[in-house]
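hi! just following up on the protien thing from before. the input was this:
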Amino acid sequence: MGQVKSRKPPVRTRQNPKGSPTGRTETTNQPVCDNKESAPTTKGTSTGDESETLNGETREEPSSTSAESDDKPKDGTDGEETSSINTQHNCDDKVSALPMEGRSTEDKSEAPNGERGEEPASTSAESDVNNPNAGTDDKETNNQHDCDNKESAPTTKGTSTGDESETLNGETREEPSSTSAESDDKPKDGTDDKETNNQPVCDNKESAPTTKGTSTGDESETLNGETREEPSSTSAESDDKPKDGTDGEETSCINTQHNSYNNVSALSMEEPSTEDKSEAPNGERGEEPASTSAESDVNNPNAATDDKGPDLKTLLEDLGLDQFYKEKLSLSKILEINEKTNNDEPPKCKSDLPLYFLKKLMTVNVTARKIKCTSASESNSNDTLRDQCDFNDLFACHDMNDSLNPLDLITALFLCSDGFVHQELALKMSMCQFSVPLLLPNCDTQQCTLMLWAMRDIVKKYRPSDLSESKGFIEDRIVLSELPMISFVRLGECSLSKSEILNKLLSNSEQYHDTFVHRDMESGDIPKRISNGLTEMTWYLPCGNKNMDIFSEPVAIANLRGDIASFETQFSFLCQTSAAVFVFFDQLDSECELLMNKNHKAQIFLVGNQQNKSLTPDGLKKLATRLNLTKNNITIKTNKTNDADFVQSLKKTVSSVLTNPQLKMSIEQMAVVARELGIPVDEDSPECQDGKKNADAITAEIKDTFQFKENQFPLQGQIWKELTFLEKEECRLRKVGSENIENYKSNLKKKREEQRKKQNSYAMSSVMTCFISAISSPHRERCYFLKWIRINLDNLSRTELSGLRELYKEKCKDSENKQEIKEIDQQLSSSSLGVEHFFREMGQIYEASLYLPETDPSRQQLQHLPKLCAQLLLDGFPLELVDGDASNIPLRWVSDVLSQLNDLVSPKNKILVVTVLGVQSTGKSTLLNTMFGVQFAVSSGRCTRGAFMLLIKVNEDFKKVLNCDFMMIIDTEGLKSPELAQLDNSHEHDNELATLVVGLSDITIINIAMENSTEMKDILQIVVHAFLRMKEVGKKPQCQFVHQNVSDVSAHDKNLRDRKLLLEQLNEMTQAAAKMEKKEENKNFTDVMEYNPDTGNCYIPGLWNGNPPMAPVNAGYSETVYELKKNIIQQLGKCESTSNNILEFREWITSLWNAVKHENFIFSFRNSLVADAYMRLCTEYNQWEWEFKKEMYKWVTTAETRISNVGSFAATSEISDMNEFMTELKSEAITELTKLETKILENLKKYFDQPEGHVYLIEGYREDFSNSIKSLRRETERSVFNQITAAADIKKGLKELDKIRATYTEKIEKAVCDLIDECRKRKVEMTDRDLDESFDKMWTETLNTLSFSKQQTTNIFTSVSHQLLTNLSHKGSHACELLSNKNLKDCGQEPFTYKPEGMKETVKTFFKELLSWTGLIKTRQKVADRIISDCDDHISDKIKRKTNYHDTYIQEILHIIDKRLKKADVDIEFEVSLKQHICGSAARKFQKMHEEFIQENDPYKCLQKNKERFCTDFKDVFHKRDQCQKKAEEFTNQSLKPAVENFIYRSLGVDIVDKMMTKEEFSTRMSFQYSILLDLISESESNFEDFLSYILSYEGHVKSWISGRIEKTFSSGSTLCELEDKHLKFCIDHINDAIKTATAEKFDSLKTFVVKICTELEDKLVISQDALDAFMVLNKSDQEQFAHWLNKCVEEMTEALREKFKSTMFETKLSRLHIKPKNELFNRVVGCGKQCPFCKIPCDAGGEDHTHHFANLHRPNGLGLYTYVASGKLTTDICSSLVVSDKRFRCSDTKNQWHNYKQYREIFPDWNIPPDGSHETSDYWKYVMKTYNKEFAEDYDAEPADIPDAWKRITKEQAVESLKKSFNIK
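and the predicted 3d structure came back as:
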């Protein structure tokens, strides 16, 4: 017997701690040893030079380490299985050398009975040093051939505080010497804190165990000749590292065995618990004495931990999962996108692990179980004190404090999550070929749960041997599959790693996979804390290939973690459900009651490991007899058997069971057994059962799918398809034939309503009632119900469809079988039944109800349906967007669901959209599921049809990055190859789908396969079409090309050629698409969108790593998909989202789908967001444009004033030379124009740079507005130069006259002065009469001395003729010839009438069907009348100014004519005759104006005019009267007052326009159109004459309407008075300042004083030179007195002017304004003036220089004078319908050839006439036409139109509503 060197351990008993599997009392008094031949080595513990022995095991306690290395493995075991791996494998001897643990303070070890065979420590150390293998792994390095000695002496392992080595099996390690609180909570041998050592200890009779020691000094520890050095100076190092490398997999008594196989058990008692000991039932305890235990507790920092054993609470707190233990973790929480989604950082602490694991698992990443934290090693490496050359680090154990066994993490996650997360975890684990929990333990409740629900979603497809010939396969839910189950359990200690053996058993030799976690995996050696008792399950499923299949039949494999003695319930369950149970053991005592239970149905197989002599053939025979086992039921791994051979023998045994299994059972059937044994089943929760009951009630009805759909879903079958056809036909008008379009559309609408009535005639089916009731139940029950119904329906579909689907794929390979393929496709469609069919029916029920009256109870009862669906979207369920069967969107249903969704989440309603597009069956849904963890249907029984949308929440912390609250994922049906597309005409459907989803998405993932380039080309063409269309309508989607099944690591480089090829093909497709879409300016794909071939492509390896069904998902697939996801999220973070919120997304769906329904998408697209954005830009632009014009008006006013005053006050004028002055003025003008142009262009840039307002949607219009700005600048520059040139030239003309006048005035003044002197000399009292006579006589004599030459008048006709000739000279010789045929003087005398010469007959035939001859004449006459009216206005304006003629006047008129003719369809004859007429009339008027001006400025006449004033002044001077007051009045009234009045009238026009511009109706062209049309219809007495005027004389009507508006705004007078006062005050202030300035200076004469005042005002007021000259004559006033009276006069003038303005009529004021507000506003709202070529509605586009014209509201052509030739009736066709019909037109532009309306853009390329999207848009004009049909006919001299029935029902309210809709007025 082993000697005891120290004190005897007292007998200790303690109650099993709470949570331990057994509750028995345990003692420490064990039999010491049964070994009769060998003396075991001892393991000692001592504080000094002494050792303490327990059961023959000597341990030494260290002298200077207080709580040292509590967790370091003592024997190198890896912690998976609780066997002592290091004991065997060292020799082939029957007496095995078993290590024992010992601690000693001396350099020696001790063996009882003197049988020690150990080298001195030094030798051992030497041999270690010289051993080249000293650094090899301590698990199985030296497992062979160390000795062949049959009675080898065991080595010892010692522990010392000095420089000594510790040896175990010849392996030396050095332990650190000065660690004070080192590794306090490291278990000594891999204990997992849950299970204790309730096993028999040892039956080995022959082996002599070695000792194992621990040391505090620099010593080495030797194991199998391998030396390791441990670091010496780490204070709290590697606290979590197990001492024996166990991997924590099996739940055996880890703390008791492992160190010897004799029954002296070597127990390490350093568990992280309050008692440093472990326990074994039945008194079989091997434990340190109490004192030692207590000592160790005191020094253990973790001694205070809960005594509960496996502390679930602590672990959950460590993992950060404690909050989810009661409130379970939901799937939406896991799937939400947060900052960690894109974060690649490895976990740093335990709380990071759950999220890290889930993130990996959700992307089906097979590395998910690698869950090592990084912080521990980082902190260890942070050791600056250590010498860099110290190699001890290399031998250090790693800290495991922050690590965790993967099984604990998996168990914790299952315990803390809800049933839906369980399903997702199990599904993803199964895809990774991980084992999934079958029985989940909960150490809190001491119960395990059968995870039936968790496995419900797992579907497996395999091919058993009997189907390998026929290539058939079985596909089924794994819980329903009846398979034999083979269970693997462990009894007692076992040195074999059961899980590793299982992995090898299930893997092919060339493809090993870790299905089960085992000790040699990363973190697999960490002691388990909560996963003991976990029973995992996996399946082996054959692929039908004999060479590859391990088992030819499917089999389920179960693996129980832990000792069956501790988990009898689990063991009983396995024995009753398995075909066979394999029991792994190392030694079995005679008490094997567990294996002898009579209720067990399973065959028992024993698997042993020959570790020592206890496994003798005799012993086994006895045991086999007791257990009724044969030799075939026992497998022993002998010392000479390697793993491969051992696995092979196991495989044979398992195969033998599978050839004739006793029992096959599905997991569903196992639930019965579980309930009998008291094991809870996860599916038994009330919510789950209620959901199941509701789902079963529905699916139980289904006998025949097709029949079921017909009966239960009547609304979505033929009716819905018919409705789809009617909707699309309304847009495409393919079958209209010769019928009247509006009648045809009216009939289609009627048919639609009939179909809806038909839908409403069906009562809601019982199934739909049940369904709606079930989804109305509380949240969890609803979710369970939907899951159950999906499961049930998938099961049904699978049986019916999987065969069809395979057949379809097979037939598709050969496109010859077109008819067969079509039939199979039809069968697939009609046999397919999914949850989407229920929701589809729900949508139809809802849409049909909207056709019922609002008060109808049926309608009201269904109002809650959209909200129900919105809630489901929010819960993460996919909603069908496009019905793939009918190829339609139930727009109203989808819109209302999204509206409700918006209400539920507002204001957090921003979304981003990701879509996938690609060929059929290329794994699009799988890609999305892997990327986002979502669940789009991917079962092979059914393929995605149409498109589904699903919502993923974005976490609060990530919202700022992505700028959204949700991400919308859209999964789409696969695009078909062209061959298949021809069969069911689905090419159109593919195009529609692609256009829609590309338009909706911010990023589109294009899933392509490079192998089939032809197919790829066709798919690319569809995609490129979609992108081109989006570019044209202002969207900027991004795309990511994904190439699947590319496995090579260098794929990216190798595929450079492929990428080039792809880009070439994309360019080719772009050109083809651009040609088809009539957008040929797009030459390359990069013209359509931003695309970089290097970053825009992603190469993804194949999904499976190996051959399914046993292949796990390829790690490369998961990693690449994760990288793609990161890339997509980054791109989304940068992109300008089109649909910033749910309501805008809804709007996009509507507008895109409406456009898609038309054949010509680009020109059919109308979107209110685009319209809004365009409207806002127009409003802004109008404002900028007016600011520009206003500034230039002010500048011109000032310039003209300065020109008028040049030279008037010669004494002070700096610039007397007019030419020099003009040069300066022009330079100023250019500077001002450039400044304003730059400002407005800058505004435009800023506008497009702003993030709000969807500006990117109207990017296409930027160029138009930019051009308009440049055009505005050019126009303004021309106009400004003309005005200042005219002003300067007229001023020059007056200069000569002024000189003459001044000279004459001077002479007369001299004569008057002489007369005064003469009269005074007479010394006679002279009466006024005498003075008058003297004055008259002198006046006559003086005038006779002056020579008055008559002023020459210019012949204006000559001048105008010259200008006209210049204008027409570039029009060719014919124009000049026509011009010379008629004298200008003969033109313009009669009213203009258009009479085309010699063309009457030919034109008559051209137009006989569309436009009558009179119509052409009328049209041209109207053009002429409008232009003449404009020119007359302009001429009148000039004449009113009473100025001289200037050539720029006629140039302006010709410019107006040219501008207007550009927009009209006229010939050269018309142009010449019109210009001659207008110029002739103008010349006549200008001649008269010129003559009047000359006469007015004649010097003689001017003198005569001033005669009275001269006479008065003469008398005043003679009588020496004070002239100050009189002269002040004269100066004020003759010079200042007219100047002030003139200034006010020059400024008032701008103010009036300014004020009007603030009104909504003048903000944009479209607002104006809306207002004027609303006015027409809203007037209480809607007047036909008004409509007629609007249609036939649009411009006249508009001008008159504008005048009315101006008058209405200013009629009260107060507004205008304010403006007048403002300008009056401005003038008076300046006059007063000028007087003040002049008074401050002293002048030699009054003249210079007045000149000073005038000079101060010269750039503000135009002071008349004539009046000033007259005022200066005989002016002898006193300067101060004059200034005094002048101030008074100015005050009086102010009041007089105020009164005058008040009394003047508004019309009179308007006529005197320089800028006419009516014309200015008209020019702003009339726009380009182009009219629709068909209905003549004016263009609504903003800016002057746009490239495309459009009108929001087209009208029936009959209103534009069109009649049907045959009947003479007015036509009801509307251009917005005609352009999609097959009807034809002809006109002069088509050279009288018939042309299709559809191709109208070939003739009118600058017009865009979108089809009437809603069919109600034109209701306004339909209402007008039906109301005044007879009146129009009468006026147009035609027959009344045949009004369609639908028009007759249109009310005035509907007409107004349609107006709002057309102009996008909210």
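The first strand starts at residue 52 and ends at 54.
The longest helix spans residues 1262-1322.
cheers
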